[in-house]
Amino acid sequence: MSARVVAVDWGTSRLRIWLLDQDGSVLAERRSDEGMLAARPDGFGRILEGHLDALGAPVDLPAIICGMAGSRQGWVEAPYVAVPASMQGIFAGAAPIPGSRRDIRILPGVAQRDPASPDVMRGEETQLAGIASLLGSDSHIVCMPGTHSKWVEIADGSIAGFATYMTGELFSVLAGHSILSHSLGAESHAVSATDPLFRRWCQDSLSDPGDVSARLFRIRASTLLLDLKPGQAAAALSGLLIGAEVASASRRFAKSGAPVVLVASGALRPLYEAAFGLAGLEFHPVEADEAVRAGLFAAARHLGMGEPAGATA
Amino acid sequence: MSARVVAVDWGTSRLRIWLLDQDGSVLAERRSDEGMLAARPDGFGRILEGHLDALGAPVDLPAIICGMAGSRQGWVEAPYVAVPASMQGIFAGAAPIPGSRRDIRILPGVAQRDPASPDVMRGEETQLAGIASLLGSDSHIVCMPGTHSKWVEIADGSIAGFATYMTGELFSVLAGHSILSHSLGAESHAVSATDPLFRRWCQDSLSDPGDVSARLFRIRASTLLLDLKPGQAAAALSGLLIGAEVASASRRFAKSGAPVVLVASGALRPLYEAAFGLAGLEFHPVEADEAVRAGLFAAARHLGMGEPAGATA
């Protein structure tokens, strides 16, 4: 096998493992729902080795990991690196797994210790390292949608500042636990970026972001008065929340007008692309999976992991 | 007994019953947690009669009811009256309980059928009728904090328009079901209006209401980075959400500068009074219980319920 390194994205609920070759290309991949929640406190090593065994990976193949496995409730804590955080500083903060025969290191998250706008990320910093590597660019604004969306300012290769928008989680808790659960119903509904309701509610939020909590109840009232169907309610709520995030974040971060790097995948990608379009914001899409792999590989290279025999530093 | 009428506020989770005399003064009161959720589908009559029996109320004493008992999932549906809704129009929409020996009527809610801003209220309209009666005023802006806060424009004695802010419910679902549950903890914390954290987070929201979802995660980050304690997290979340409501609503409703009628009671009253103070908004406080009783009594009088024998119309 010509694998150079194992690259692992160990999130809260999901685990993804890639074998990468000398150039960072994917040789093999495994996915499971053995995220941090399932693996802690002491299942990490066993789970990883189990997957690597199934892949036939050599026992001495090094592994570079990012994500919640490095949190306080994870495998080994990789303490936050503080903003402003260079990619090299992040790589240097990788924490080894003590007592492991295999060279395993977990990348740190990043903390913004500004008392006015404290914030944390863990896992996204690796995607940001991947973007730097993929775009060959030192300065850009990045939007990273998700349960906790991140908007990040990269300046001269360092994370200069960032903000978190709880957009995905707001959708979940409102749909699942608030009166809006009566509007959205028990089944989950895929929201389409071409859905006129998504686009209208998104545009209304973009035009007037100060009114999100006022508009939330209109979804409930629409169910009662205007026969809004569950799929429509999901589209409305999604448009409302994504529009509010893009309105607020672009005002703060995208002032220069340069295209925003949009790191999204799956169902969120077309929704955010639609919101950017409605907002008149230019963007450069990057596939989230590609970004994290590129970041893990950049970290491994920087740390000299999986150096071919006889290679110079 | 000199009781004229039974006045009932039948909410989702709570039931309150008053015996009122000829002038609307309280002769007796009972409270229980037999709200609509506990009473439906067919326990309403039994529960009401049980309480009136315990109070020694005459079997022919009429009863006027407001609240969720008149909703579709309640005792008898009292269909919404549409905006613009006069107090007389609301009273006239009272639905009788068929087949009851006692004269029992349930007041309707109010619906705003504007497709751009659909909205509904049920129970608050009765408090608004009470305010008209207490203040002797025809035109005013009313703020009614709660699980679903209402801001209402009363013009020439009619409900001209209103908006709902899910402030109380947002607090509950975020504290109970989001990552902020780790910040607030399992116990509930009383928030004081003099708490500097409440005031600071309230002021920040007032200054910049477009950023509520960005600020939510800062509570989580503050727990991780700044040792924010659970009681402090509760104060921060409360200030953030109440400030956002007051900022948005006052911009829409309180443009004239006339004092806003603040109908609050219990723990919410000092918090909203503090928010109004920070916003530089004048207000006129009215006790919520007094408002609902006055509204129920005004309805009973208008409908001729409990007219003394020989009284002229």
From TrEMBL, chains A, B:
GO BP terms in the entry: D-galactonate catabolic process
Domain of life from the UniProt record: Bacteria
GO terms for MF: 2-dehydro-3-deoxygalactonokinase activity
Protein name: 2-dehydro-3-deoxygalactonokinase
Source organism per UniProt: Allomesorhizobium camelthorni
